[in-house]
Amino acid sequence: SQTIHQWPATLVQPVGSPLSLECTVEGTSNPNLYWYRQAAGRGLQLLFYSVGIGQISSEVPQNLSASRPQDRQFILSSKKLLLSDSGFYLCAWTDRSTEAFFGQGTRLTVV
Amino acid sequence: EDKVVQSPLSLVVHEGDTVTLNCSYEVTNFRSLLWYKQEKKAPTFLFMLTSSGIEKKSGRLSSILDKKELFSILNITATQTGDSAIYLCAVGGSNYKLTFGKGTLLTVNP
Which residues does chain B have within 8 Å of residue A46's beta carbon, measured at their own beta carbons? Predict the structure, then answer.
């Protein structure tokens, strides 16, 4: 069966520090991968999505970036965090015909 | 630009009430519409809708899609306090982009 792993679960980082959040999927190949951010318990804002290795679509211009170095690995990064980057980050995957499956999320607090 | 609009943004009801949550969308190359329930962390899947007029049902929850008018509704009958959550609507479009709405925060009071 397929599983998705996202870590860390919580993170407190100072302003200006770098960020790396990792998401990996097991039990499937060539998944579509997504990074979302959720602020204050509201809707999910699509940040990046990827339909294949090295293929990244960016939805929101900001100081975050994403990479997909391997088929089932999706990384969200920043070189210098801002206070406004605080939020709940969710990784998700689909196999094109099913619903999206979510990781457990990372709560990021920038201080 | 793909767009998903949910209404109402929040709703407070009493146990036993019936609620209807709305989701309208504008998307290029519609693939599917999905409903999720989010309580604390990861959203949990409720329904996937791809065809108009076919109701999907699971216990007290049901949903239907109207592809002509570009909307979907999620009904919850005989609400319980455990139904309190954020309900999220998402639409799949071109190139497998998956866009979510802002959610409806449902509070069910005893």
Answer: 97-100
